[in-house]
Amino acid sequence: MTTHAxxxxxxxxxxxxxxxLAQFSLxxxxxxxxxxMLGQERTVLPLLADDVFHLxxxxxxxxxxxxxxxxxxVTNFFAGTWSDRFGRKPVLIxxxxxxxxxxxxxxxxxxxxxxIAANVLLGMNQGLTWSTTVxxxxxxxxxxxxxxxxxxxxxxGYVAVAATAMATGAIAEHAGLRPEPFLLGAAYVILALxxxxxxxxxxxxxxxxxxxxxxxxxGSEHDGELSTGxxxxxxSLRDKALSAASQAGMVNNLNxxxxxxxxxxxxxxxxxxxxxxxxxxxxxxxxxxxxxxxTGWWSDRIGRKHLITAGMLLQAAAIALVAAGTTFGxxxxxxxxxxxxxxxxxxxxxxVIGDVAHPAWRARAVGVYRLWRDGGFAVGALLAGALxxxxxxxxxxxxxxxxxxxxxxxxxxxxxxxHPRT
Length: 422
Fold this sequence. Notes:
It is found in: Cell membrane. The chain is an all-alpha fold. The protein has helices at about 20-40, 45-50, 60, 65-85, 90-100, 100-110, 110-140, 145-175, 185-200, 205-215, 230-240, 240-260, 265-270, 275-300, 305-325, 330-355, 360-390, 395-415, and strands at about 5, 15.
């Protein structure tokens, strides 16, 4: 469905995927490059911590994920606020400028401190660029195809994570862990900066156009302009759907920290080659990424809540299978199931935020949600590392499987259905 401007202050602005196909497609490409920046680390960095920098403690080895997650979480919050204040495009460009030194720092950094510093910059890059592409696609899509829009956005990002993880694994197998695998990231950042500067157009007026025509239920506390503090409280605690989505997002990315930092070490401990580890590291985000094009659309058809509940429980089962497994085949099956579970959850949670939040403060609500969600990287790095050091890798994995199942039950009990058709 396409909504046209009919005069007033926003002439020529239209909402809908078809009406904005060129810009929407361009933003899909940009977000694929955002994902590629993350994917360059997925296979190589856990092995780099062990083989090059000789970090024996799992908690120490996970510090780059802690640095990345904490920085990205905080940056997400400001990305939403700055997008409302300054516009979407300046925030997007700033994110790519920050990323310029990251590949070189990863490729030639002489100490682990350089790797942590690179991940601080990477967290800022991801928080600004990924948040902004989400906000811009929500702006363009309008209310009817929000789930599908988020499916395309997240699919592009995580398919690129998978493809780059597999590519860097293959490069590292033949050329070593540094510097060649990180040259891909250098190409990504240069291309993305050029596209964001010269081809992407501002979308803030689309949100204003939708806001002028938005109708909330009579007496709704969600209507109209809210302060940033009010948006934070509503998204984090007061609204049952928004707060349930925030906690599920946090646990989802806690799982991702586990898959990123702990799974490769478990696979290596059982004798898998770097190339095999690269395949496993790619399977999960590949299925997750490709599946979101279907699950985002599906949530527009049947609603959000049940897909999120099912996805969290499927993730829990997949993580438990990783803990129980000892062979490549079992772990490959678990990675596919983990990807399917995450695909059910990831675009659907963003669609919940878009459903409930008023267009006047939606960008800030996305920022608060992503603050909680990407805070899961930091929590996951600390929790998984501490449990692995105190007990074992498998104990850490079992514990997070249980936590993921509990999160799914919270969604089942607390969240209300948010899709307007349902």
